[in-house]
Amino acid sequence: MNDLNILNNETVALAKKIYGDGFIPLHRPVFEGNERKYLVDCIDSNFVSSVGEKVNQFEKEIAKFTGSKFAIATVNGTAALHIAVELAGVKAGDEVITQALTFIATCNAISYIGAKPLFVDVDIDTMGLSPDSLKIFLEKNAEKRLDGTYNKNSGKKISACVPMHTFGFPCRIQEIATICSDWGIALIEDAAESLGSYVDNKHTGTFAQLATLSFNGNKVITSGGGGMIITNDIALAKKAKHITTTAKIAHPYEFFHDEIGYNYRMPNLNAALGCAQLERLEESLLEKARVASQWSDFFKVRGVNFVQAINGSNANHWLNAIILGSKKERDMFLKFTNKNNVMTRPIWTLMSKLPMFQDCQTDGLKNSLWLEDRVVNIPSSVPDGALKDFKG
Ligand SMILES: *Cc1c(COP(=O)(O)O)cnc(C)c1O
Predict the structure, then answer these.
(1) Judging by beta carbons within 10 Å of its beta carbon (0-12, 13-18, 19+), is residue 130 exposed, middle or buried?
(2) What is the pLDDT of residue 50?
(3) Which of 236, 251, 279 delimits the end of a domain?
(4) Taking 70 as the threshold, does the pLDDT of residue 391 lie above it?
(5) Which residue's CA lies nearest to atom 9 of ligand 1?
(6) Is the pLDDT of residue 87 over 80?
(7) pLDDT tens profile 177-221
(8) In ligand 1, which atom is closest to the CA atom of 190?
(9) Distance in angstroms (rounded) separating the CA atoms of residues 75 and 86
């Protein structure tokens, strides 16, 4: 057997040691707390839909956990991003800078407004938007006018920038925020993957005017489906609540809507699940860190690059990631592990390669292309029973 075969075999063996036999998913939710109780409470109360106490509670608790002043719950993370992009002032025909190495939701949300993504490269170590590349891109392509920054090639306004904290590893958000502020470009953090990740002990999603979270079934904690907009700006918070609840003016019985709104409010049932999950978040993060350190020790002695948070930041270990030597090694690894009941997955196909974004401007995406060929996610769930001692 060659080294790669040994690595693949031993990876499967360690996954089985951590998670037991049978199919091992990449990430699955754990319901070992108050989930059933809160769901039943919700049904018994009759408040199962978009009005209810659990939604308000979930919002308050997420605001507290992240250290943001306001949180507005939505049906999913994509809807949260859609609203954040709209509230940041992005208009149809504008351009929005983001990374090509992201999940589709980031680019879909930009497109819902009728804006177009501009793809700037990521840093190799964070896998998130590179401040150096962003600066170079703007200096080369952009000009400041009285009403904002424009793309000299397309003549379009560059109205926002949406970096993403890939797999929960924080990107260099402080540097990105400085550049955006210098250029007068609105900053929105896609923190869908980074609940529980920090930069300088400040929660990701609190460096921008607006940020969004996701509680999809595969995320760190889940509400079944759900998302959240977080902000410190009371006007934006009020506006977000208003347009995600059909823009209805509060009244005991009359219907009056003062603009086009969305039916994007998170249902109470989902929030009930979310509240129960949130009670276990700190503990889940500890368990995930324990799993990550097992993988880290394993890959270190085998000379494989196991991705770690950069200095000054802390990852939530949502999805563990390794960087293999080549696309060929990656493909062999994926094939072997998946065949042996251990789910592993390549990083996303770059957004710039998808049919609907193929004509978007890029900066060459050198690092993104390199990572696209080599990054693999490995099983990262909290192991069964790890949270069993809960007395909540
Ligand atoms: C999960 C995710 C979202 C939001 O997804 P939903 O499934 O709509 O909640 C947005 N951006 C990124 C990068 C994500 O991983």
Answers:
(1) buried
(2) 81
(3) 279
(4) no
(5) 77
(6) yes
(7) 999 999 999 999 999 999 999 999 999 999 999 999 999 999 999
(8) 11
(9) 16
Q: Residue type for 136, please?
A: I
Residue whose C-alpha is closest to residue 99's, from 367, 317, 378: 367
Please give the structure tokens belonging to residue 125: 């170590």
Burial class (CB in 10 A: 0-12, 13-18, 19+), 262: middle
Is residue 313 located within the same domain as residue 213? no
E strand or H helix that includes residue 74: strand 70-74
Task: For residue 77, report the distance from its CA to the centre of ligand 1, in Å.
Answer: 5
Residue 71 belongs to some domain of the structure: yes
Q: SS3 helix, strand, coil % of the chain, rounded to 5? A: 40, 20, 40
Whether residue 387 has pLDDT greater than 90: no
pLDDT at 197: 98
User: What mean pLDDT value characterizes the chain?
Assistant: 96
Cα dihedral 199/202/205/209 (nearest 10): -120
Cβ atoms of residues 141 and 119 within 8 Å: no
Predicted TM-score (pTM) above 0.90: yes
40 and 68 share one domain: yes
Beta bridge partners of 214: 227
Predicted pLDDT at 275: 98
In a domain, 384, yes or no: no
Q: Are 392 and 279 in contact (CB under 8 A)?
A: yes
Select from 74, 85, 169, 193 the residue to mutate for testing ligand 1; criterion: most ligand atoms less than 8 Å from CB. 193
Most informative mutation of 26, 62, 78 for ligand 1 (most atoms within 8 A of CB):
78
Distance 85 CA to ligand 1 centre (A): 14
Taking only the tens place, the pLDDT of each residue in 290-304 is: 999 999 999 999 999
Rounded to an integer, what distance in angstroms lies between the CA atom of residue 149 and that of residue 372? 30
